[in-house]
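User: Sequence in, structure out. Go.
Assistant: Echoing your sequence, followed by the structure tokens.
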Amino acid sequence: MGNPAIEPVIFLTLVRAERDVAGARTLIASLRAFGGALAQNPFWVFNACPAETVYRDLEAFGARVIPLNTPAPIRDYAFGDKVFACAQAEALATPARTLVWIDPTCVVVNPPTLFDLGDAWSIAVRPVHIRNIGLRATDPLDLFWREIYAAVGIADVAATVESFVDRQTLRAYFNSHAFAFDSAIGLAREWLARFTHLVGDSGFQAHACADELHPIFLHQAVYSALIAARVPAARVRRLPPTYNYPYNLHATIPADCRARALNDLVCFTYEERALDPARLTDIRVDEPLRTWLAAQ
């Protein structure tokens, strides 16, 4: 028998509670409406919510809904379920190549073609929006990053990024609202292993994660370290600002980088911001997106 066929690009998201269903439904509908050649690609929704209505509501949109039973100790840790869901998707998707994670507070408004990795890329990512717990390229290693680098088997990283909003040069630190990864390289399962180790390390948690921000962004920091450690720079596709555009931070984005219209973007995150076009007074929304958003 020949090799099994490679599956197309598969999109992934997560619902943690019933309140997340509306966002996931809007995300899926946006891909179907504006995704171009990728509009009808498979969409997997990992479900950490026990309500049966989640399955009915999302399967009606053509999604595959997959139960997610995140184990302790990461079940109650910030974004542990996202890490576990990506690892589960990677295991289930073989021999798929490109998996695209998109948070349920994101919307696709143009074909997201750069998420399709093909044979040339192993990962597609954006830099973080703001520094938060990121480490400046010129600063010495702090305890948090030193322990993360040690967990992935490196002493430091040479790769840098510029944060999109506050424009600081940081050691490689990538956003995780939406990204694409090649399931064949096993990065998501290693992400889960390293993240689980650090969550369970009581010394690391007590000294490096004793504040509010470091636990929230631990998942993103571990993923960034793994990309720097495991993926050759030539195989990291750095996406343009039209991907993962932080509309929730729109007012703080430097004027020369600020989007003029939502239609100019590929995908954006909105988080707590309203999507009713009648209430979007700080950015232009043209047709057909205006009518589509109003209908949602």
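User: And one key feature?
Assistant: The CA atoms of residues 30 and 108 lie 5 Å apart.
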